[in-house]
Design brief:
Elements (H helix, E strand, L loop, with lengths): L2 H10 L4 H4 L2 E6 L3 H12 L4 E7 L2 H9 L7 E4 L8 H9 L8 E5 L4 H9 L4 E4 L4 H17 L33
Parallel strand pairs: 1-2, 1-3, 3-4, 4-5
Helix pairs in contact: 3-7, 4-5
Length: about 180
């Protein structure tokens, strides 16, 4: 069998990720203690083959754009120096190359941060757990879901919140609202 034929056969049937290697994770985290906990949790996952850390968004963007890393998933903190997680999400989402799942892992519990992250391309938004066991569980589920093509369970829809404007009469279409004097 010649080399050209072997190469052609390989091109027709490329190996899947699980056949050749495990999952490569890009961790974008500025805090050393949090990065250590994240790394320990990732090392407990047998599907993880490589972990690369960037300390801020500028470093992470350079690593990906220069081809130094081809992550299967990125774990991104929101509040970092130089380029925060929100800006990094936008830059990754706007990239020409095929994108990878972006999971936000933050200590923020603000609903606005979660909403802003999702609008900028995050596939999941997770709050950092305090213990190693919880971190292993949360990251294991998030990475396996993000990298296996499994769709996330739909969230339960909350009933519409009533506001002060719910009792106001409907304005006919085409009429302007008159300001109060």
């Amino acid at each position: 069998m010649n080399t050209a034929q072997t190469q052609a056969e390989l091109d027709l049937d490329p190996p899947s990720r699980s056949d050749e290697r495990g999952i490569c994770v890009l961790v974008v985290e500025d805090d050393d203690a949090d990065a250590y906990l994240i790394e320990r949790a990732l090392l407990a996952n047998p599907n993880i083959d490589g972990i690369l850390r960037a300390t801020d968004g500028v470093e992470a963007l350079e690593l990906v754009e220069n081809g130094a890393v081809h992550p299967d998933v990125a774990l991104i903190d929101l509040h970092m120096p130089r380029k925060n997680g929100f800006q990094l999400l936008v830059d990754f989402a706007a990239a020409q190359e095929p994108c990878f799942p972006m999971v936000v892992l933050t200590s923020s519990t603000a609903p606005t941060d979660a909403m802003r992250s999702r609008l900028r391309g995050a596939t999941r938004v997770l709050t950092k757990p305090d213990s190693l066991a919880d971190m292993e569980s949360v990251l294991g589920e998030a990475i396996n879901t993000a990298c296996s093509g499994v769709t996330m369970k739909p969230r339960k829809r909350m009933p519409k919140r009533r506001t002060a404007f719910d009792n106001s009469p409907a304005r006919p279409r085409g009429q302007k609202v008159q300001p109060y004097h």
